[in-house]
Amino acid sequence: MSFEHVLVISGCLVKNGVQFTVFNVYAPCDSTSQQVVWNNLSSRLQMLSDMNVCLCGDFNAVRCMEERRSVGGVARYGWCATYNNFIEDNFLVDLPLRGRNFTWFRGDGNSMSRIYMFLLSDRWCLTWPNCFQMALSRGVSDHCPLELSVDVENWGPRPLQMLKCWALTPGYKSFVCNK
Amino acid sequence: MKIISWNVRGLGSFEKRREVCHLVREKNPFIICIQETKLSVIDVILCKSMWGGDCVDFSYRPSVGASGGIVTMWDTKEVEV
Protein backbone atom coordinates (compact mmCIF):
# COMPACT_ATOMS: atom_id res chain seq x y z
CA MET A 1 0.00 0.00 0.00
CA SER A 2 1.24 3.52 -0.63
CA PHE A 3 0.03 7.09 -0.70
CA GLU A 4 1.77 10.36 -1.44
CA HIS A 5 5.24 10.50 0.16
CA VAL A 6 4.66 7.24 2.05
CA LEU A 7 5.17 3.54 1.29
CA VAL A 8 3.63 1.01 3.67
CA ILE A 9 4.40 -2.68 4.07
CA SER A 10 2.59 -5.02 6.44
CA GLY A 11 3.87 -8.47 7.18
CA CYS A 12 5.09 -10.92 9.75
CA LEU A 13 8.34 -12.49 10.84
CA VAL A 14 8.89 -15.93 9.32
CA LYS A 15 10.43 -17.20 12.56
CA ASN A 16 7.56 -16.50 14.98
CA GLY A 17 4.71 -14.98 12.99
CA VAL A 18 4.77 -11.65 14.86
CA GLN A 19 2.94 -9.09 12.72
CA PHE A 20 4.15 -5.58 12.03
CA THR A 21 3.74 -2.58 9.71
CA VAL A 22 6.58 -0.39 8.45
CA PHE A 23 5.98 3.09 6.99
CA ASN A 24 8.75 4.42 4.73
CA VAL A 25 8.30 8.21 4.74
CA TYR A 26 9.86 10.91 2.61
CA ALA A 27 8.12 14.09 3.73
CA PRO A 28 8.09 17.29 1.63
CA CYS A 29 9.95 20.41 2.78
CA ASP A 30 7.13 22.95 3.01
CA SER A 31 4.93 23.05 6.08
CA THR A 32 1.57 23.03 4.25
CA SER A 33 2.37 19.82 2.34
CA GLN A 34 3.86 18.33 5.49
CA GLN A 35 0.63 18.89 7.38
CA VAL A 36 -1.23 16.94 4.67
CA VAL A 37 1.23 14.05 5.10
CA TRP A 38 0.89 14.13 8.92
CA ASN A 39 -2.92 14.07 8.57
CA ASN A 40 -2.85 11.15 6.12
CA LEU A 41 -0.43 9.26 8.36
CA SER A 42 -2.54 9.95 11.46
CA SER A 43 -5.67 8.51 9.89
CA ARG A 44 -3.76 5.35 8.84
CA LEU A 45 -2.18 5.04 12.28
CA GLN A 46 -5.55 5.25 14.01
CA MET A 47 -6.60 2.11 12.12
CA LEU A 48 -3.46 0.37 13.37
CA SER A 49 -3.82 1.14 17.07
CA ASP A 50 -2.32 -1.54 19.31
CA MET A 51 -0.22 -2.96 16.45
CA ASN A 52 3.55 -3.17 15.97
CA VAL A 53 4.10 -0.03 13.88
CA CYS A 54 7.37 1.58 12.85
CA LEU A 55 7.72 4.81 10.86
CA CYS A 56 11.09 5.62 9.41
CA GLY A 57 12.61 7.96 6.92
CA ASP A 58 13.24 11.57 6.11
CA PHE A 59 10.59 13.64 7.90
CA ASN A 60 12.18 16.97 6.90
CA ALA A 61 11.24 18.27 10.34
CA VAL A 62 12.91 18.53 13.73
CA ARG A 63 11.43 18.17 17.22
CA CYS A 64 13.20 21.12 18.83
CA MET A 65 15.64 23.92 18.03
CA GLU A 66 18.60 21.88 19.33
CA GLU A 67 18.06 19.32 16.59
CA ARG A 68 18.95 21.80 13.84
CA ARG A 69 22.11 23.86 13.47
CA SER A 70 22.67 26.19 10.54
CA VAL A 71 24.56 29.33 9.62
CA GLY A 72 21.76 31.64 8.49
CA GLY A 73 18.41 30.33 9.56
CA VAL A 74 17.01 28.84 12.71
CA ALA A 75 14.43 26.13 13.10
CA ARG A 76 10.97 27.64 12.89
CA TYR A 77 9.22 27.02 16.16
CA GLY A 78 5.80 26.46 14.57
CA TRP A 79 7.17 23.62 12.46
CA CYS A 80 8.53 21.83 15.52
CA ALA A 81 5.15 22.19 17.20
CA THR A 82 3.13 20.62 14.35
CA TYR A 83 5.62 17.76 14.07
CA ASN A 84 5.57 17.21 17.84
CA ASN A 85 1.78 17.28 17.85
CA PHE A 86 1.74 14.61 15.15
CA ILE A 87 4.12 12.40 17.20
CA GLU A 88 2.29 12.93 20.47
CA ASP A 89 -1.26 12.61 19.08
CA ASN A 90 -0.34 9.21 17.67
CA PHE A 91 1.52 8.11 20.83
CA LEU A 92 4.71 7.48 18.88
CA VAL A 93 8.04 6.90 20.60
CA ASP A 94 11.24 8.56 19.38
CA LEU A 95 14.12 6.60 20.92
CA PRO A 96 17.32 8.43 21.86
CA LEU A 97 19.82 8.46 19.00
CA ARG A 98 23.08 6.60 19.45
CA GLY A 99 26.29 7.22 17.54
CA ARG A 100 25.78 10.88 16.56
CA ASN A 101 23.71 13.92 17.47
CA PHE A 102 22.67 14.73 13.90
CA THR A 103 21.69 12.63 10.90
CA TRP A 104 22.02 15.15 8.06
CA PHE A 105 25.07 17.25 7.23
CA ARG A 106 25.65 19.85 4.53
CA GLY A 107 28.99 19.69 2.73
CA ASP A 108 30.25 22.96 4.29
CA GLY A 109 30.19 21.32 7.70
CA ASN A 110 28.24 24.19 9.28
CA SER A 111 24.68 23.00 8.78
CA MET A 112 23.35 19.84 10.34
CA SER A 113 20.07 18.50 11.65
CA ARG A 114 18.21 15.47 12.90
CA ILE A 115 15.39 15.31 10.32
CA TYR A 116 15.79 11.61 10.00
CA MET A 117 14.54 9.08 12.55
CA PHE A 118 12.54 6.06 13.58
CA LEU A 119 9.18 6.51 15.31
CA LEU A 120 7.69 3.49 17.04
CA SER A 121 4.27 2.59 18.39
CA ASP A 122 3.75 1.67 22.05
CA ARG A 123 3.02 -1.89 21.09
CA TRP A 124 6.28 -2.13 19.08
CA CYS A 125 8.25 -1.06 22.16
CA LEU A 126 6.46 -3.71 24.25
CA THR A 127 7.08 -6.45 21.67
CA TRP A 128 10.75 -5.51 21.26
CA PRO A 129 11.62 -3.72 24.49
CA ASN A 130 15.33 -3.28 23.92
CA CYS A 131 15.37 -1.55 20.52
CA PHE A 132 17.84 1.19 19.79
CA GLN A 133 18.37 3.56 16.86
CA MET A 134 21.92 4.16 15.74
CA ALA A 135 23.31 6.62 13.18
CA LEU A 136 25.90 4.93 10.96
CA SER A 137 28.78 6.58 9.11
CA ARG A 138 27.74 8.88 6.30
CA GLY A 139 29.48 7.54 3.18
CA VAL A 140 28.37 8.97 -0.15
CA SER A 141 25.13 10.74 0.87
CA ASP A 142 24.73 13.83 3.05
CA HIS A 143 22.35 11.73 5.16
CA CYS A 144 23.56 9.06 7.59
CA PRO A 145 21.95 5.65 7.27
CA LEU A 146 19.97 4.89 10.44
CA GLU A 147 19.75 1.48 11.97
CA LEU A 148 16.95 0.24 14.21
CA SER A 149 18.18 -2.84 15.97
CA VAL A 150 16.17 -5.25 18.05
CA ASP A 151 18.52 -7.48 19.96
CA VAL A 152 16.10 -9.80 21.71
CA GLU A 153 18.75 -12.13 23.09
CA ASN A 154 21.08 -9.54 24.59
CA TRP A 155 19.54 -8.23 27.80
CA GLY A 156 22.91 -7.74 29.46
CA PRO A 157 23.63 -8.88 33.02
CA ARG A 158 20.70 -9.01 35.42
CA PRO A 159 20.88 -6.18 37.97
CA LEU A 160 21.45 -7.20 41.57
CA GLN A 161 20.73 -5.10 44.61
CA MET A 162 21.85 -5.81 48.16
CA LEU A 163 22.33 -3.90 51.37
CA LYS A 164 25.70 -4.19 53.07
CA CYS A 165 24.09 -4.60 56.49
CA TRP A 166 22.48 -7.92 55.40
CA ALA A 167 25.93 -9.48 55.68
CA LEU A 168 25.84 -8.76 59.43
CA THR A 169 22.70 -10.83 59.93
CA PRO A 170 23.56 -14.21 61.50
CA GLY A 171 23.21 -17.05 59.01
CA TYR A 172 23.34 -14.69 55.98
CA LYS A 173 26.28 -16.38 54.30
CA SER A 174 24.88 -19.90 54.53
CA PHE A 175 21.44 -18.60 53.34
CA VAL A 176 22.98 -17.12 50.18
CA CYS A 177 25.10 -20.23 49.56
CA ASN A 178 22.05 -22.50 49.91
CA LYS A 179 19.97 -20.37 47.53
CA MET B 1 14.79 -7.83 13.65
CA LYS B 2 16.81 -5.05 12.11
CA ILE B 3 15.65 -2.19 9.91
CA ILE B 4 17.83 0.29 8.05
CA SER B 5 16.58 3.60 6.74
CA TRP B 6 18.58 5.83 4.41
CA ASN B 7 18.07 8.88 2.24
CA VAL B 8 20.52 8.06 -0.56
CA ARG B 9 20.02 11.20 -2.66
CA GLY B 10 19.67 9.27 -5.90
CA LEU B 11 20.15 5.59 -6.69
CA GLY B 12 21.17 6.24 -10.29
CA SER B 13 24.91 6.07 -9.86
CA PHE B 14 26.91 2.90 -9.48
CA GLU B 15 28.59 4.24 -6.29
CA LYS B 16 25.27 4.67 -4.47
CA ARG B 17 24.09 1.19 -5.41
CA ARG B 18 27.39 -0.25 -4.29
CA GLU B 19 27.06 1.62 -0.98
CA VAL B 20 23.61 0.08 -0.43
CA CYS B 21 25.08 -3.33 -1.27
CA HIS B 22 27.84 -2.81 1.32
CA LEU B 23 25.31 -1.71 3.92
CA VAL B 24 23.19 -4.83 3.36
CA ARG B 25 26.19 -7.12 3.49
CA GLU B 26 27.63 -5.52 6.61
CA LYS B 27 24.42 -5.11 8.63
CA ASN B 28 22.22 -7.96 7.42
CA PRO B 29 18.95 -6.04 7.85
CA PHE B 30 15.53 -7.70 7.60
CA ILE B 31 14.17 -4.58 5.93
CA ILE B 32 15.79 -1.57 4.27
CA CYS B 33 13.85 1.65 3.60
CA ILE B 34 15.40 4.01 1.04
CA GLN B 35 14.24 7.55 0.31
CA GLU B 36 14.95 9.86 -2.61
CA THR B 37 15.76 7.18 -5.19
CA LYS B 38 15.16 9.71 -8.00
CA LEU B 39 14.19 6.72 -10.16
CA SER B 40 10.89 6.38 -12.00
CA VAL B 41 11.19 2.60 -12.31
CA ILE B 42 12.78 0.07 -9.97
CA ASP B 43 12.97 -3.51 -11.14
CA VAL B 44 13.81 -6.87 -9.63
CA ILE B 45 17.27 -6.94 -11.25
CA LEU B 46 18.26 -3.68 -9.56
CA CYS B 47 16.98 -4.89 -6.18
CA LYS B 48 18.74 -8.24 -6.42
CA SER B 49 21.99 -6.58 -7.39
CA MET B 50 21.80 -4.22 -4.39
CA TRP B 51 20.71 -7.00 -2.03
CA GLY B 52 23.46 -9.30 -3.26
CA GLY B 53 21.19 -12.33 -3.59
CA ASP B 54 17.82 -13.68 -4.70
CA CYS B 55 16.04 -13.67 -1.33
CA VAL B 56 14.62 -10.19 -1.69
CA ASP B 57 11.28 -8.66 -2.49
CA PHE B 58 10.44 -4.97 -2.79
CA SER B 59 7.81 -2.29 -3.09
CA TYR B 60 8.35 1.23 -4.40
CA ARG B 61 6.84 4.60 -5.25
CA PRO B 62 8.32 6.18 -8.37
CA SER B 63 9.98 9.58 -8.32
CA VAL B 64 8.01 12.59 -9.54
CA GLY B 65 10.19 13.97 -12.29
CA ALA B 66 13.72 13.83 -10.93
CA SER B 67 12.86 14.18 -7.26
CA GLY B 68 11.54 11.91 -4.55
CA GLY B 69 10.96 8.21 -4.98
CA ILE B 70 10.99 5.63 -2.18
CA VAL B 71 11.69 1.91 -2.07
CA THR B 72 11.38 -0.70 0.68
CA MET B 73 13.23 -4.01 0.26
CA TRP B 74 13.02 -7.00 2.59
CA ASP B 75 14.67 -10.36 3.18
CA THR B 76 12.17 -13.04 2.14
CA LYS B 77 13.87 -15.59 4.40
CA GLU B 78 13.04 -13.48 7.47
CA VAL B 79 9.95 -11.49 6.57
CA GLU B 80 6.68 -12.41 4.89
CA VAL B 81 4.76 -9.46 3.43
Descriptive notes:
By secondary structure, chain A is an alpha+beta fold. Chain A is built from four helices and eleven strands, in the order βββαββαββββαββα. In chain A, helix 1 links the parallel strand 3 (19-26) and strand 4 (53-58). Chain A is extended and about 70 Å long. The N and C termini of chain A lie far apart (55 Å). The relative contact order of chain A is 0.13. The mean pLDDT of chain A is 83. Chain B is α+β, with helices and mostly antiparallel strands. Chain B has two helices and five strands; from the N terminus they run E-H-E-H-E-E-E. In chain B, strands 1-2-4-3 form a four-stranded mixed β-sheet, covered by helices on one side. In chain B, helix 1 links the parallel strand 1 (2-7) and strand 2 (31-35). The radius of gyration of chain B is 12 Å and the shape is globular.
In brief, what are we looking at here?
The complex is a heterodimer of chains A (179) and B (81). Chain A is an alpha+beta fold and 179 residues long.
